[in-house]
Hints:
Elements: E1 8-12, H1 21-34, E2 38-40, H2 53-70, E3 73-77, H3 88-99, E4 104-107, H4 114-117, H5 141-144, E5 149-151, H6 154-168
Amino acid sequence: MRAAGQPKVYLAGFDVFRRDAVERGEYLKRLCRNQGLEGLYPFDNEVPEGLAPAERAARICQLNLAMIRGADAVLANLNPFRGFEPDSGSAFEVGAAVALGKPVWAYFQPQGSMRQWMPGDEAGRDAEGYFIEDFGLPRNLMLACSWAGCSASVEEGVAALRHYLDGASGA
């Protein structure tokens, strides 16, 4: 935790793929400001023009990882994306933050445990025959066992993360 200034929070999530991604980023950063936090949105990075697609992708990855390293915490949108699971890039960012010792606060619409909401048969297997995790957790155990907490919405998540950070710093 920073001794002075606003704690920096990296805003992980598939929000960058929305049609209104820039506006959504501004909204998320405003929520953070209202809680005395500095939101770091991936679109804040400046990626040089004229790079080949693979070079551009590598640069975005490097810049986002640098933002995570410079952040005090990560707020992660772990709502399902393009299927039943969270966005894989967001899950990676959560893992990177955890590996760096940064607290992660998740937010997603609650649905109960994975076994309750993921379609499967009576034996607990999905349509392809794979077992569905049944630990009573709302997300994969590697996510659910590593976050500092979770909330049902980004609005609740920002406030809860602020409260958590205040407690972690002894404030």
